[in-house]
Structures are given as structure tokens and as C-alpha cells.
Amino acid sequence: MPDAPSAVQAFVGLGANLGDAQAAVQRSLQALDRLPQTRLAARSSLYRSAPVDAGGPDYVNAVAELRTALPPEALLAELQRLEQAEGRERPYRNAPRTLDLDLLLYGDAQIATPALTVPHPRMAARAFVLLPLAEIAPQRVTPGQLRAVADQAIQRI
């Protein structure tokens, strides 16, 4: 999709810690580029991080930059469809997962609905979001934000 005046820059956090998590994240990055009215503009390296506020194996994480003409609610629905295609289940909050796709930022929009909050409410407290985001969009992350998560275990893979 060529950039059009209606295309919005959106950022999506990807994570998985069940099954072949690295393959699931890689497949999902490719699938994001095939969403309607959307193209993958950039993708971070993959990172391994310990679960935050949860148990289970380490996560594989990344952040993707999209250019999309989808409205935020439609983009969220597409992200949830991709999660379902990877076998995502939600038995309880912060359960281990085959795939987690979070809409982090949608342009400069501030969205607060029962289904969607943008910017993502916990992104500033998560190294597994901020480090990959800083890699592809350094202007979106402050040094103070990075210092605040410096004690969280994460490594580029």
C-alpha cells in the first residue's frame, strides 16, 4: 500500500512464550504486512524477556511500525484475528500465550474506550516494549523511560 494522506503510523507490540514463540512472532510480522490497507514500514529485532507480572517461559518480543488506513478499532480486530489464528487463548489475565499483539500507538491519537486504550496503558513500564520501540522509532521513547525499565531482564536475540 503506498503511503496515502489517510495512512496513519501505528506501532504494534508482538510477544509470545508458548510453542515456537520465535516462529510465531516472525509469522505475525509477515502477516501484519498483509493486513488490508496496511503495510509493514519497519520492524525491530527480536528480544527475549522474562515475563512481567506473570509466570511461564521467557517471551520473544518485537515491535512493528505500520502504515495503515484502517481505523483503530478495525486494526485492533485484525490484530485479534491474527492472535486467534495462532491459537491464542485467554484463560486468565497475563496467562502465557502463543501470540499477543498490542496496539501501542495509533498516530498521536488518545483513545479510551472499553475495548481499546491508546497509547497502550502499560507500555512505558515495559522494557520489552520500549527497547524494540526505541530501536525503530527513537523519537517515541525518552531516555527517562529507558532508565525506568533498565532493571528488567531483556536481551536482543
Which features does this protein show?
157 residues, alpha+beta, six-stranded antiparallel sheet, two-stranded antiparallel sheet, 4 helices, 8 strands, 27% helix, globular
Task: Note the quaternary state here.
Answer: single chain
Alpha-beta classification: alpha+beta
Q: List the helices and strands in order.
A: EHEEEHEEEHHE
Note poorly predicted spans. none
Overall geometric form: globular
Largest sheet: 6 strands, antiparallel
* Helix content percent band: 25-40%
Radius of gyration, in angstroms, nearest whole number: 15 Å
**Overall average residue pLDDT:** 91
**Terminal Cα separation, in Å?**
30 Å
Helix count, per DSSP? 4
Residues in β-strands, percent: 25-35%
Number of separate strands: 8
Question: How would you describe this protein?
Answer:
A hairpin with a 4-residue loop joins strand 6 and strand 7 (117-118). With 157 residues, this protein is of the alpha+beta class. The longest helix has 14 residues, at 72-85. The strands form 2 sheets. Strands 1, 2, 3, 4, 5 and 8 form a 6-stranded antiparallel β-sheet that branches. The chain has a two-stranded antiparallel ribbon with strand order 6-7. Helix content is 27%, strand content 27%. The protein is built from 4 helices and 8 strands; from the N terminus they run βαβββαβββααβ. It is globular and about 40 Å long.
